[in-house]
Structures are given as C-alpha cells and as structure tokens.
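Course assignment 3, question 2. Fill in each field.
Student: A.L.
Task: Predict the tertiary structure for the chain below.
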Amino acid sequence: MDCLFIINPIAGGHAGKKIAAELKRGLHVRDFRKHVVFTDPENLETQVLSLASGCDLIVAAGGDGTVSAIACILGTLDRPPPLAILPLGTGNDLARSLGWWKVWNHGGLEYFSSGISAGKVEAMDLWSCEEDSRFIGYAGFGLDARVVAAVSKIRMKRFCHNFGKRWNQFLYVAVGLKYILSLMLKFGSTDMDVCFFDKKGNMNQVKLRNHAALILSNIEHYAGGGALSSASCWSDGKLEAYVIPTVRAYLGLLLRGRIAFFPNPRATYQACSVKIIGKQNLPVQLDGEWAQDYTERDTIKIQHVRALPVLVPPANFAVKESAGSRWSKSPILKRDTSSILPDPATTSRN
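Answer field:
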C-alpha cells in the first residue's frame, strides 16, 4: 500500500518536522510504502495533484486549515484517494469529528498507524462557498469570522511562526474577548437575510438583525472542541445551521462539549443549500481559516459539491497488537473506493 504523508512542518510549534523524522526512522512494514513530504504553501495545489496519483491513502498532518486545503484540492480529482488526518493544529475539529484526534492523543504515531489499518473508508460532503472557496467542516459568518481574521493577521507576522499550540490558544482567547466586548457594547453585530433550501428546493427565509453570528456546520465539533449537534452527519448532504443571536448564546456554544453538564445544542435549521445576503460588510471563515469579507451588495451561495472518501478509525478502536503486526496481517485499503461515492458527473449542485 502506498501512503503519502503531507505534513505542515510548522504546525504544532514545528511538531511536523519531528513527526516526519519519526516516520522516516520507523514503521518499516512489509507491503507498506510511505512517502513523506512537507507542504509547499505557494504551490500546494500542484504539489498535491502531482503526488496523489497512484496513492492508496493520503495522510494530512497539520491543523484544520491544512487538512481542509488538501481535501478541497483532492475534491477536484475524479477518483481521489481516501484522506486520513494526523492532528497537529490548534483546534483539530475535523480530526476530532472523524475520530483521529482521540486516536493520536491516546498513543502517538504507532497507535495512529494501527488506527489506519483498522479503519474504514466513508464518504464526507464537500461544500462550496461561492465558486472559488470550499470547505468540509464548517463556515462562520460574523463574530467568529472576525476573530479568525484578526488572529490570522497576527499569525502571519514572522515573530509568531515559532510559537506553538498554547500560544495560538491564548491568542484566540485574547482576540475573542476583544470582539465579544465590542459586540456587548453594540459594535460589530451582524445583519443578513438567509434562505435555507431543502432537497426539493423549498425555502425557509429568515432575517437576522443585530445577531452575533451564523454557523453552518457539517461536523460535530467547533472551535477546538466545542460540541455541536449529536445528530450531525458528514455524509447526508445537509448542513446544520446555528443562528447565534447574542454573545451569551455564542459563549454557551463554546462551552458545550467542554463542560460535562452542558448538553449538545440543537441546530436551528438543516439545509441542503444556503443563500446569504449581507446587509453590511460580512466576514467569512471556512474551516477555521479566514476566507474573505463580502460587501453588502454580495450574495453568498453555499452548495453541496460532491462526496470525498475519508478514512475513519472504528468508534471503539483499541490496540491489541503492535502496529507492525496489524500492517503485516491486514492490507486494509482497496484501490477502488468508488463504490461509496456518487459519480462526480451526476452529482447534484443545486
């Protein structure tokens, strides 16, 4: 089996470099051929497309931004290889939702490798936000997007490149408090008209005025471990929409999943596609990365693009054998995973 590890070298305070070195030293198992490369941010699309051909599995090692970028590029292929996640970022919401965050934190690289051998390929929805932007986890409009945009600008500064996960977490908290205070003082609220469409095209229109945020999610986790609806399904062609009217409601959303007695929230709406008309400049974040600011004249359309193959560990996964023995006994990934995916040519984009 050919497995390509695409690693963000600066993720997790340069933990990516350590993982690459560990991969090159170990995991020498029969019938398993690994290739390790570092991401090239300036040429990531060319890099992924040129290396993915002929691979049985792609492992994206990094945070949600790295994983999402690689997944969206794989989504342009007719038959992309399955994608697994080695979580090295700050939030790791995609890895948490698919189960890889728990596997990685339980036992590191060997446990992760055993998880791959025991895993199965499933389909995961890929979504578009207008023609040139895509996401697989969630999209945020309003307060959380403003926080992500501000943090992104700070992290782009050269002196921030060597800081690790704890620094990034502190940065999100500090910037978040700033924007939360501004919103409490009646600055930075969000106004938009939103149309939610079901599979048959029926529309439910709502007008949001002086709201904190709108979150559209395809997964179960948000903002580094916050819990969303337990009914969320990443392969049903639907997004869960969470209308966040106040700062208090937003803080409650962040605490769910982190405090045991807080139940998971219920989605306000479910939709197969969404149209948003901003009544002011509207910032947008996709999978925890700032996307852009839309103007009040823009109409934003969120639509289902296709399904992608992802590898997920079993929910009750436990290591009973060494990684080497599992690999030697079980060539688990078949080259043809098309049976779980719709034909891209016939996938509905409505």
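Instructor remarks: The two ends are 37 Å apart (CA to CA). Residues 134-305 form a domain with the Tumour Suppressor Smad4 fold (CATH 2.60.200.40).
Grade: pending
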